[in-house]
């Protein structure tokens, strides 16, 4: 089960983000993404999406956590709204994140994506 986790962290106060992929454990992915966000200057970094890949086809850890191996973060630079989502593919993750962000306006753009 080595290297299946990824995460995106975001700091809405200053629009900084960080990400990681290939972590051995969910907690490692969360910590690494937050660390990268803080290293970028983020003051209020928090994990906005956590995901794992399809290397294992069954729920081998019995967590019920879905196998969405891509995530995306979107942001509207004019009003500060943002969205994040995980899905089976990069395109689906971006689409879901844009839908979430665009609820507060139609000018959202993908600012980060990552897949494991």
Kindly summarize this structure in a few lines:
This protein is an alpha+beta fold and 116 residues long. The chain is built from two helices and six strands.
Protein described:
The protein is α+β, with helices and mostly antiparallel strands and 116 residues long. The chain has one domain (5-115). It has two helices and six strands. The protein has a three-stranded antiparallel sheet with strand order 2-1-3, covered by helices on one side. Strands 5-4-6 form a three-stranded antiparallel sheet, with helices on one face. Strand 4 (70-75) and strand 5 (82-87) form a beta hairpin. The mean pLDDT is 88.
Which features characterize this protein?
alpha+beta; 2 helices; globular
Secondary structure layout:
Elements: E1 5-11, E2 16-23, H1 26-39, E3 46-52, E4 70-75, E5 82-87, H2 90-101, E6 109-115
Antiparallel strand pairs: 1-2, 1-3, 4-5, 4-6
Find the count of extended strands (DSSP E, 2+ residues). 6
SS-derived structural category: alpha+beta
Helix content bin: 10-25%
Q: How is the largest sheet built, in terms of strand order?
A: 2-1-3
Radius of gyration: 14 Å
Number of domains: 1
Flag low-confidence runs.
none
Assess the beta-strand content as a share of residues: 35-45%
State the shape: globular
**Helical stretch count?**
2
Order of SSEs: EEHEEEHE
Mean pLDDT: 88
Separation of termini? 13 Å
Main sheet summary: 3 strands, antiparallel
